[in-house]
Structure formats: structure tokens, C-alpha cells
Amino acid sequence: MPYKVTVCGAAGGIGQPLSLLLKLNTDITDLALYDIVNVPGVAADLSHINTPAKVTAFLPDNHGLKNALADAQLVIIPAGVPRKPGMTRDDLFKINAGIIRDLATAAATYCPNAFMLIISNPVNSTVPIVAEVFKSKGVYNPKRIFGVTTLDVVRSSRFVSDIKNWIDPVAVRIPIVGGHSGPTIVPLLSQIEPAQDFTREEAEALTKRIQYGGDEVVQAKNGAGSATLSMAHAGARFAQAVIAATLRGEKGVVEPTFVALEADSANAAALQASVDGLDHFALPVELGPHGVERIHPIGSINAFEKELLAIAIQDLKGNIQKGVDFVAASK
Ligand SMILES: NC(=O)C1=CN([C@@H]2O[C@H](COP(=O)(O)OP(=O)(O)OC[C@H]3O[C@@H](n4cnc5c(N)ncnc54)[C@H](O)[C@@H]3O)[C@@H](O)[C@H]2O)C=CC1
Ligand SMILES: O=C([O-])CC(=O)C(=O)O
Predict the structure, then answer these.
(1) Over the Cα atoms of the chain, what is R_g?
(2) Which ligand is nearest to the CA of 150?
(3) Residues 160, 156: Cα–Cα separation, whole Å
(4) How far, in Å, CA of 256 to CA of 192, rounded?
(5) How far is CA 107 from the centre of its chain?
(6) Which stretches make up the Lactate/malate dehydrogenase C-terminal domain (predicted)?
(7) Are residues 199 and 323 in the same domain?
(8) Do 264 and 212 share a domain, yes or no?
(9) Measured from the CA of 227, which atom of ligand 2 is nearest?
(10) What letter would DSSP give residue 52?
(11) CATH number of the domain that 243 lies in?
(12) Is residue 10 annotated as involved in ligand binding?
């Protein structure tokens, strides 16, 4: 069965290793790589790998974006600028918001039914931007738009195994809820599988490391960007989860991701009430043939996690509104 995936920002620090991992995915038959620079070389290089996907490069000229997106079933967007030391993800808004708005406008026009996986920061605002653009084009389906927060999940599994060193980091699962920036990243360590006990000191230190894991990489790269290789792994993992549920019909595929809560219409009101009325939030999402199948509630959490959640909700309100306002002001 043909399955076309388009990567926008494919020549970048994330785009290249992500495209490599996607090229190794034998469910994908057509890998369209779009960027404003350097993408023909990336595509030529990847096209020599002996896996089924046909790799094609697109630059903006000759209707490149239109041709890259046409008939895509899945679109992954790591386009835009990364952080330098001292910056917050929100500092990227002024450049990345316009890039995401324009790519979303093209996707809403040329592949309105594709699953949209948004990596570009600030995710807490770029996902609402995509949603608002799709609404304005009359093609909005909240089940199909995802903010990729998988790196928080990947990191947290690894960081837990650093302090409880007999735990297999591949097997450990921690629901990460909220959003994708500092205090909006809320790891629910009380719900870790397999079950673990943490002292309050351990929980505080681990939570801080998970919330600021991105900063560790930004500082280590010292001006040369932010996480790219771990992000490529995380992006490929989330893409595979979507492909498994939507193309292969696998059941029980659950990954935390930042989504519109209305995507689970049966539970939307209760979910929104649990996060002070926010319309977007990262929660563990069960994926199904149409994308979001069911959004898991926050569940039972301890006093420390309640404190974290209250802080996250306050920040997220502003981040989400900023995205909505940006699209409204662009009209
Ligand atoms: N969601 C997450 O967990 C993470 C998100 N990120 C974010 O991902 C984004 C990309 O990061 P990197 O790959 O390190 O940056 P990068 O600068 O290495 O690559 C970005 C690519 O986007 C391309 N680009 C710029 N404008 C474009 C447009 N209008 N259309 C298509 N392509 C365009 C650039 O030419 C470049 O190749 C950043 O915003 C970063 O903050 C990074 C790590 C984790
Ligand atoms: O920290 C950054 O700017 C990139 C990112 O989102 C992450 O690594 O989680």
C-alpha cells in the first residue's frame, strides 16, 4: 500500500537524521523531503539506501512545497530555528510562528487529511497555530494534529534508569503531561511503569532534569543548536506509533502528545475541566485508525504533581493564546 511521508525542514539538524530513520522504515513507500536549502544532497544521499521508500527532494521553486505535500498521509515539521544558550523556547516564536503558519497553510491546501506531527518550537504555541490555520481553511480535524513531545518521554525513561540503574530504559514508561517547555513539562513519576518509589528529593531532582533536559543539550552544544539526534529518534518513534495505529490497525498504541482535547469528543468536557479549561494539553493518547482514539485522563497524582500541574496550566494558557492570536492577527 502506498504511504507517503513528507518532512518539512528535512535538511536541518533534526531533519537529516529523522529522514534517515524514516528511510529505514519499510512501511513508508514515498519519502518527500522539503527544505529551503540543501535538500537535494540529503535526498540523493538517502536514496542510495536499499529500503523501499522512494526519496524525493523539493525546494521552494517550481511549486516544490505543493508537490512535496500532495497526497502525503503524514507530514512531520522540524522546520525553523533552534535555541542558543540563554534563550527560552518562547524566544523562538517570533521566527518560527510565521514558518509554521505558512507550512500549515500549504498542508491545509494540498494534504488536508494528512496526520500533522509538529516538532518546531515552541510546541505549546505552534500546535495551536496549525489548528487555527486548519480551522480557517475549513479542514480542521483535531484527531490528526499532534505536538511531538516524545523526546520528554524518551529522556525521562533514560534519566530514571540513571538513578535506578537496574531499570531497563527501554521498558520504563512515564506519562509526561502538560506541554513542552520547562515548567509545562510535568512528569507523573507516581504513575511510572514498572512501579517505583521515589523520595521527595529524588522526585524533585528527576522532575527538574526532565523539565530542563533540552537545556542540557543546548548548553553542551554551546551555540550550535539544540537536541537533534535524540529528537530524530523520538520523532521517528512517534511517527511509527501513528503509522502502526493508522496504517497497520494496531491496537493499544499509546504515546503522550500535545493535542486538542476536543479530539476525544466523548471525554473532552471532563478533560478540559481537569486542566482549568485549556483546550490543548499533552496527555497519553491512544491512537487508532483515525488518529486520536482516546485521550487518557491525568488520573490520580500526588501533592507534588498537583503543584507542578498548577504551574504548567498557568504558563500554557499564555502559550496557547499566543498561537491563536498570531493566526487571528495574520488574517
Ligand atoms: N519538539 C521537540 O521536542 C523538539 C523541537 N525542536 C525544535 O525543532 C526545530 C528545528 O531544530 P533543528 O533541526 O535543530 O534546527 P536547524 O536549524 O538545524 O534546522 C531547521 C531546518 O529548517 C529549515 N527551514 C527554515 N525555514 C523553513 C521553511 N520555511 N520551510 C522549510 N524548511 C525551513 C532550515 O533550512 C533548516 O534546514 C527548532 O524549532 C527546535 O527548537 C528541537 C528539539 C526537540
Ligand atoms: O531544548 C530545546 O530547545 C529543544 C527541545 O525542545 C528539546 O530538546 O526538548
Answers:
(1) 19
(2) 1
(3) 6
(4) 13
(5) 17
(6) 149-326
(7) yes
(8) yes
(9) 8
(10) S
(11) 3.90.110.10
(12) yes
Bond preceding residue 60 cis, omega within 30 of 0: no
Q: Of the ligands numbered here, which is closest to the C-alpha atom of 228?
A: 1
Residue 83 beta carbon below 6 angstroms from any ligand 2 atom:
yes
Residue-wise pLDDT for 281-330, tens only, equals 999 999 999 999 999 999 999 999 999 999 999 999 999 999 999 999 99
Q: Let me know if 180 is a catalytic residue.
A: yes
**Contact present, 326 and 101 (Cβ < 8 Å):** yes
Q: What is the pLDDT of residues 244-288, one digit of tens each?
A: 999 999 999 999 999 999 999 999 999 999 999 999 999 999 999
Please provide the DSSP assignment of 251-291 as one string: S-EEEEEEEEGGGSTTTHHHHHHHTTT-SEEEEEEEEETTE
Cα(234)–Cα(148) distance, integer angstroms: 8
Cα–Cα distance for residue pair 211/234, rounded to 1 Å = 16
Supply the range of the domain harboring residue 67.
4-148
Question: CA 250, CA 258: separation in Å to the nearest integer?
Answer: 21
Inter-residue contact 234 to 262 (CB < 8 Å) = no
Q: Are residues 247 and 171 in the same domain?
A: yes
User: CATH number for the domain including 105?
Assistant: 3.40.50.720
3-state secondary structure of 32: strand
Cell match 528535512: residue? Answer: 10
Q: In this structure, are 200 and 275 located in the same domain?
A: yes
On whether 96 is known to bind a ligand per the annotation, the reply is yes
Neighbours of 294 (CB within 10 A): 15
Largest Cα–Cα separation, the chain:
59
C-alpha cell at 232: 530524530
Q: What cell numbers appear for 19 in the block?
A: 529522514
Residue among 48, 180, 233, 280 flagged as catalytic: 180
